[in-house]
Design goal:
The protein contains 31 helices and 27 strands. Helices cover 45% and strands 15% of the residues.
Length: 856
Amino acid sequence: MTRWQRVVPVMPKVDTNHVAILEAVKKIDIVSELLDEKNKNNLKMIAEGKISGGKQIGPYARLLAYEPGETIMQEGEWGGNTFYLSVAGELDVYVKDDSGKEKKVARLAPGACLGERSILAGIPRNATVKAPQGALVLELVRPALRLLRSLKKFAEKVDDSYRNHGLANAIAQLQEQTSRALQPLDLVALGNISQFMAYGKHHVLVQEGMPIDRIFLIRSGWVRRVRGVPIYEDVTESAGPGTLVPEDFFGAGNCLGLEALQGRDKWAYSASLMARTELLEIPLASLQAEPELCQRLSKAFAGFSTADDDTALIQPASESQLIAAEKEIATGVVDGVNLLVMDMDLCVRCGNCSLACHKVHGQSRLLRRGIHIERPIKLESKSIQHVLVPSVCMHCKDPECLTGCPTGAIFRDAKGDVDIDPVTCIGCFDCATQCPYNAISMVPRTGEPVVSEGFLTRLRKLFGSSAAPVVASTATLNEAKPEDAKGGTKAEPEAEAKTEAKAEAKPEDDMIAIKCNLCEHTTLNPEGTKRPAYSCEENCPTGALVRVNPQEYFDEVGKTLGLVFRDQTHAIGRNIHKSDRTAKAWHVLGGLAVIAISAWIIWAARRYGFNESLRGTWLTMRWLTGIVGLVGIAVAMTYPVRKPIYRSRAGALRYWLLAHLYFGVLAGIVLLIHGASHGGGVLTASLMFSFDAVILTGLFGLAAYIIAPRILTSIEGDPLLIEDLEGRRDELRRELKELGEKTDGTLRDLIDKKMRRHFFWPGYLLRQYARREPLTAALAKARLHFRNEIADFEEKEKRALALRAVERMATLRRVDALIYLHRLLKIWVAPHVITTTIMLVLLIAHIVQVVFFNVR
């Protein structure tokens, strides 16, 4: 089905004639302002889909005629792409009760707006709407909502409807979660005195020392509490948590102001919003007017909210927890619906994730740059985990790209995932510009390379240098047909509009937006697949990548959520960073198997010898160990066979690597026993030497994979690609060369002799790995070391040049240290492959030789 068909379960009669749409608009009171002269362009956009200049990007509306009993929208479906205005005929609204049966709750008269909440809140439909006697409905796509909200009457109607529905849903959720503590009459009373409100980021909710006049129940969003300092609305970002300013964070399901019900009359803290937040506001005076309700409400809310446990903020979490939580909330990653995270302590910088994405989609949609977070591995733990949230679509709950798309090419599919329709995308760059995570890139339909301004390196943050734009990989772009991209059978009117727009566009303007679509509609996820597979995660050899529900993954944020109003996501990936049972099974069973088999073979070899027949058969321990070793090698060699498989499911690569490791170790031990002190001829000796080389290079690679990433993450700050580091190294070398040309005499001697001898001494490089101190600390020590020499210069300009030389050399050695670690992760691969190839050739020759002589 296409996007239109997916939203409408039963296809009605469709009319896209702009004259008919115009007549329908005239009958709907809440959009009557569209008929004003000042709104004629908006009306033309909605009815005809043309903007100034006549370019076709719509239309945004079409008329749907429903037969009696047909369903307009269905409860539970993701409808973030369309909403409706009733033109003629009454509509019935149904919701499901606890038994799953539909119950009629309302009847809507013509002129009603429905389905807009699903767009505004980023949630599935919360009701089913049917046409009992037939109806005429105006269906509009998401971009039309942005235009209509500029109309005063429509905006007021939508806002009132949003608040009323929000209040009703909040009360319903409370009833579901607190059915024993609050009775239906209590909830009715609560609904009568409460107000549902939505505020933007940085809104100041309460001020310390001010009277408590209401209670706030957080339905969605995040609140930052602080004590001892004032909070102002024009503050853009927090200065960061510290020990001198007590603070904490709270999310959905928490209640602020409960302390007023225990006698406190003033706020003990200030609170501001860290994101768009929905609240249930309960006036304190109205609540206290009903003592029994007040008592039951206090008990019920205190049961699921933790915000009232420490209103004085005297027991804050550890500083590392607060820093991590603030960054996760402030950057918005915690509100991602399906988040890709990398554990940089496990990432071996192989680039296989980007390569896999490229192989599956024709161009990589994964860039290993993004938001870097240092967080405690466990709550109250001093061990730090370095997490990278790469520049990949996180399928946001309220995506800015989807909101700003002028054609509706960006949409939510039936599962709630955000995707892009290549047919209706006009390449306007709006989505790529608006995405705060640089997760969307623009590529030519012809497949030529394009400079993507969205992918900017973070080099300046670490080393104080600008980074060049990155040329995106845009190998031949296989333009998906509508039915391929979204499961439909043929293009709808917006596809025809796209064809027209494409014909008018210049070749250099014919761009298309691409982003991660969770490998939907690829060979990795054929129809009927129960568990989704993601090419990047499946092809990571160490399990560094995983798609998760961020509120479950980040413990420091999850603990701030109450028991109700938790944001539900549709991420279903397992958090293998916390618990990977399959990997644990491999380690336990693999280790035990290696020990048990090796011990048995050693015991059997001592008892029976190598050349004695076993139980009267032709089989000897020499043959048995050779066969077991051969099987071990054969299984270990399945890893390089699996590695280039990207477009189909073949099991997670990380488990194949474990098989490669344990069967390789087993083969190594058994074949060493097999050779024993029996040297054999030149061929056998060469085979054993090559086999030893394979084992040694493999063990070196294993050590590098374990040690190098952890050192990298501890000294590099934001994770960097080796291309970034090499570019920065060349830049620093050029600067030092220019400095040398500007200096002479004593200053040149200081730079060439003392400074170079100090910084380019191997011990200074090794110190980078041993101390693992931040770059700022290393620069401070370097300046201090040459303080006296620099102070000896009378000219201010010479002191500045000397200081600059110190900083550039210290930075260069830090960059060199990082580059060497990157190379260490790869330098062992070529020798390992070469020695393995030689070993396999010699092994085949050895087998042929043994069989030939045995037959003779």
